[in-house]
Design goal:
242 residues; alpha+beta; SMI1/KNR4-like; 7-stranded antiparallel β-sheet; two-stranded antiparallel sheet; 10 helices; 31% helix; globular
């Protein structure tokens, strides 16, 4: 196990380059303020250095809100809950005190979108968690199919792709006229519930005609997980705590 000094005092930290990417992003992005103590606590449990994008986001930000809040990328968060966006420690249920034996069994949840989509980094054995893709790569729990999909990209590549505007094409078919206004009206702890549900034939035929309302994010995630189980799909597993 590496000490916090070994994780933070490194050559070639990722933050300067990442900060430049954030400043020149092709999509609207809001960088939430960091909580140094909470960031260090999460970094220690993660055991990644700030040479990585994941480590830099954890130590230097409270998270990112992209596309007016449509997509939430988790950073270190804030222990006092200020800003409304949970950090990696809260979302993934990190132990209160550093535990070298603890690890996220299903993989590390690193982002949510307002529809209940979940971005996660695969753990060492994706098959055991009923997830596709390779260890350490991103997978996405799609709210319109209720299944995990491999993205075939690592965390740093995912962040660079998002900041270059990748979400614009990724969410084609899942956005309706006026989605920007609805997303901007949410708090970071809320998501959007649709009816008919996103996985229904009605929603697929005419997403704009669905009724939508703001609800707590845990309700959006819980509903998707319940329907995935009822539909006989694979157990979705851990989708994150909000």
């Amino acid at each position: 196990m590496r000490t916090i000094e070994e994780l933070t005092e490194v050559d070639d930290p990722a933050w300067p380059e990442l900060r430049e990417l954030l400043a020149t992003a092709a999509v609207p992005v809001r960088v939430l303020p960091a909580d140094p103590e909470e960031g260090r606590r999460c970094l220690l449990q993660l055991q990644v250095t700030v040479r990585s994008t994941l480590g830099a986001l954890t130590l230097h930000t409270g998270g990112l809100l992209l596309d007016g809040g449509w997509l939430r990328v988790f950073g270190g968060g804030r222990a006092d809950g200020a800003g409304g966006l949970p950090g990696l420690g809260q979302v993934n249920g990190f132990p209160a005190a550093f535990d070298p034996a603890w690890y996220p069994a299903d993989g590390l949840v690193v982002g949510h979108d307002v529809l209940g989509g979940v971005f996660a980094l695969n753990g060492h054995d994706p098959a055991a968690a009923n997830r596709p893709g390779a260890p350490g790569q991103l997978v996405y729990f799609a709210p319109d199919t209720l299944a995990w999909e491999p993205l075939e990209i690592g965390h740093s590549g995912w962040i660079a792709w998002l900041l270059s505007g990748g979400s614009t094409t990724f969410y084609q078919g899942l956005r309706w006229p006026g989605w920007e206004t609805e997303a901007a009206g949410l708090t970071p702890s809320q998501g959007i519930a649709t009816y008919p549900f996103l996985w229904s034939e009605e929603a697929r035929a005419d997403l704009a005609a669905t009724s939508r309302r703001a609800v707590p994010m845990h309700e959006v995630l819980g509903l998707a997980a319940d329907f995935a189980r009822q539909a006989g799909a694979s157990e979705p597993g851990f989708l994150g705590r909000t």
